[in-house]
Amino acid sequence: MVGHGFMGAAHSQAYRVAPRFFDLPRTPVMQTLVGRDGAATRAAADRWGWASTSTDWREVLDDPTIDLVDIVSPGSTHVDIAVAALAAGKHVLCEKPLANTVAEATRMAEAARDAATRGVFAMVGFTYRRVPAVTHMRDLVAAGRLGTIRQVRAQYLQDWLVDEDGPMTWRLDKDLAGSGALGDIGAHAVDAVEFITGQRLDAVSGLLHTFVTERPLLDTSVVQTGLGGAAGSERGTVTVDDTALITAKLSGGAIGSFEATRMATGRKNALRIEISGSAGALAFDLERPNELELYDATRPATELGFTRVLVTEPEHPYFAAWWPTGHTIGYEHAFSHQLVDLVRAVDAGVQPTPSFADGLHVQRVLDAVERSSASGSAWIDTEPDGESERDSDHEGVSA
Ligand code: SOE
Question: CATH for 129-326+356-383, among 3.30.360.10, 3.40.50.360, 3.40.1280.10, 1.10.1040.10?
Answer without folding.
Answer: 3.30.360.10
